[in-house]
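Please decode residue identities from the backbone states below.
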């Protein structure tokens, strides 16, 4: 029995609709349908699929972790593997040196921009100084 069949039969056994599960889990109905029919091409990525499988399973009283483990077993063989230094590693894309430098450069620029006070903060500072100045004038006026 596939993961989608397990989810669908358990949902039907409990007399729940896709809309009921969507309200419980806050997962869109179209994504729940894709999980039940195992049409993973309609879903954004593996991280989302695993999270939604876990949440969907737990909403039905199933072990969400067991569903994710089963999904990993079924889809692990589809990932390309490479042999590096005599060990087999899953095909992952690691950042090369120029890409790292570019990302670090972008990160530094964005953090420098954030160090300047925002417009809203400057307005509050200005209002604060006006209140302080008003209090000083009020004190010496009376």
């Amino acid at each position: 029995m596939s993961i989608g069949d397990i989810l669908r039969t358990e949902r039907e056994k409990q007399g729940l609709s896709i809309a009921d599960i969507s309200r419980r889990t806050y997962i869109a109905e179209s994504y729940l349908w894709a999980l039940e029919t195992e049409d993973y091409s309609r879903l954004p990525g593996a991280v989302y699929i695993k999270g939604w499988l876990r949440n969907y399973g737990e909403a039905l009283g199933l072990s969400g972790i067991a569903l994710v483990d089963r999904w990993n077993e079924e889809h692990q063989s589809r990932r390309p593997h490479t042999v590096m230094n005599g060990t087999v590693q899953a095909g992952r894309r690691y950042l090369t040196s120029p890409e790292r430098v570019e990302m670090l450069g972008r990160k530094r620029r964005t953090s420098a921009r954030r160090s300047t006070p925002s417009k809203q903060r400057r307005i509050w500072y200005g209002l604060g100084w006006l209140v302080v100045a008003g209090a000083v004038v009020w004190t010496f006026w009376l």
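Observation: The first helix runs from residue 3 to 13.
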